[in-house]
Amino acid sequence: MKHSLQVLFLSLALAVIAQALWQHDRLPARVATHFNLAGQADGWMSRDNQTKAHLGLVLFIAVMLEGLARLSPRLPDGLVNLPHRDYWLALERRAATHAWIAGLIRLIGCVLMIFFFALFHLVYRANLSSTPMLTAPAGLLVGGLLATIGLLLAGVFLRFARPPA
User: What is the rounded CA–CA span in Å between residue 152 and residue 103?
Assistant: First the structure.
């Protein structure tokens, strides 16, 4: 499972990077990048800066999360914040616990990459109009992201709340 989540996460990151490169020449020279609650554009930047921000954010998040997933097994136990840490990080369970944590980190990365892909698509579509406006409520997208990450984190508490009897 670790390998498939890693491949999925990195593939989604590459898809968002490809999206930025594909959208670059199709965007206007001045790109609406921030929108108010009514969906109207209220922040702008150049196409080049928007593409750099798109790429930079995705690369930063991908490198940071993949780095955390790989670093997790090397962390001292004192830096791992889990309920019943001594039980879950005992030598016989340590590798499985860190594999589970790395999988969770990559799963959160997958959720973030899907979020970024959808968000950047909404921004792209809004900029195809002479009066950029979000046609879909970005709040739903943000709410969905927060709810999904909340559910994933709840899974951590359910998984590690009590050691098996």
Answer: 11
Q: For 128-144, what is each residue's pLDDT tens digit?
A: 988 888 877 667 778 88
Q: What three-state secondary structure class fits 40?
A: strand
Helices and strands in the chain, H and E counts: 5, 2
pLDDT of the residue at 2: 55
pLDDT band for position 39 (cuts 50, 70, 90): confident
Q: Single out the residue of 40, 48, 61 nearest to residue 117, CA to CA.
A: 61
Nearest to 58 by CA among 107, 3, 20, 4: 20
Q: What percent helix, strand, coil does the chain show, rounded to 5?
A: 70, 10, 20
